[in-house]
Amino acid sequence: MFQVLNKSKVGEDVCMLLKLPNHSFFYMCDCGEASDLTIGEAKNIKGLFMSHTHIDHFCNFDKLMRHLLPVTREILICGGEGIAKNVQCKLLAYNWNILLTEEQAENAMYYHVREITENGIFMYEMHTPKWELEYKGEYKGEFLYENEVFRVTYTILDHRTPSIAYTFEEHPKIKAKDDIPYKGGEWIKHLKNAYKEKDFEKEIIIEENKYFSKDLFQYLEELAGHKVSVVLDHLANEENHEKIIHLCKNTDELYIEAYYLHEELELAKKNYHSTAYLSGQVCKKAGAKKAVPIHFSRRHQKYDDLKVLFEEFDKGFNE
Asked: Of 185, 203, 222, at which residue does a domain stop?
């Protein structure tokens, strides 16, 4: 089950951290100013999922980069069109002449970028110390990202620039039913593996008797994994809302921008943002079990202002 942490204090920008039990790495959504992000957390980040690179969402990349330099693995960055160049420009702003020897550079951390566009997902890599942008072709995976624990899907929203919303979903869990008419044992593990691999003819041995996996699948059940969605800056219009509802359908937790009060709707439209009330409404329409407003205008950072924003958000979500 995902643990979602807002690493930014009130008055700071937006930076969300996703953790999983018994999983070595962390995953980050946007990297605005975040005083609560520790060095240890930064060093353990495996993937950064950017909505877009306006300064309040990207200004803390330098801190993240600094703490990741000692690691020796690939760091994944996903974002909208132009993200690869944005990252490269950050890296080229510094002098790297004493960082590594050539031998050390071969085993150093590097960035793998997946750039999301309307025409496909394109891959790039950047290696220290020159940080040249190496084009690696078009990404053809079924999901934007997938590992042994979860997968990531996305949609492109309009914020007068592409803004990427993400859903993180644990893989379904395969559980043995309570009423199995056989004695438990190692065979259940083999049966689960056969189920995952869709191997219907795998031989399963139970107490010296031989069965085919397809005849035992009836004793397993598939439980949906925990699902978390992060939707940041977007214009509150019908097209964006339809995309959000589709991406976040029945999500367990939906974290969404609530930038303006509803009385500021015209200002929200002008700046391609949403209001707290409309964000609450779209969370309800998506069937979110839990909805959390996370990103607010700098004009609404005092306690009394935030209280009204939260009330408007709850009204939209609970009506």
From this structure: 222
**Angle subtended at Cα 207 by Cα 205 and Cα 209, rounded to the nearest 5 degrees:** 55
Which of these three, 183, 204, 222, is where a domain ends? 222
How far apart (Å, rounded) are the C-alpha atoms in residues 54 and 161?
9
Q: How many structural domains compose the chain?
A: 2
Q: What is the 3-state secondary structure (H, E, C) of the chain?
A: CCEEEECCCCCCCCCEEEECCCCCCEEEECCCCCCCCCHHHHHCEEEEECCCCCHHHHCCHHHHHHHHCCCCCEEEEEEECCHHHHHHHHHHCCCCCCCCCHHHHHCCCEEEEEEEECCEEEEEEEECCCCCCEEEEEECCCCCEECCCEEEEEEEEECCCEEEEEEEEECCEEEECCCCCCCCCHHHHHHHHHHHCCCCCCEEEECCEEEEHHHCHHHEEEECCCEEEEECCCCCCHHHHHHHHHHCCCCCEEEEECCECHHHHHHHHHCCCCEHHHHHHHHHHCCCCEEEEEECCHHHCCHHHHHHHHHHHHHHHHC
pLDDT tens digits for range 246-260: 999 999 999 999 999
Are residues 309 and 236 part of one domain?
Answer: yes
107 pLDDT exceeds 80? no
Which residue, among 136, 96, 123, 113, has the nearest Cα to 53 in the 3D structure?
113
Q: Give me the domain span that covers residue 199.
A: 174-222
Strand 120-127 and strand 134-139: the pairing is antiparallel
| Chain segment 117-155, per-residue pLDDT in tens | 999 999 999 998 889 999 999 999 999 999 999 999 999
Give the residue, 302 or 150, on which the prediction is more confident. Answer: 150
Mean pLDDT highest for which of 94-108, 212-226, 261-275? Answer: 261-275
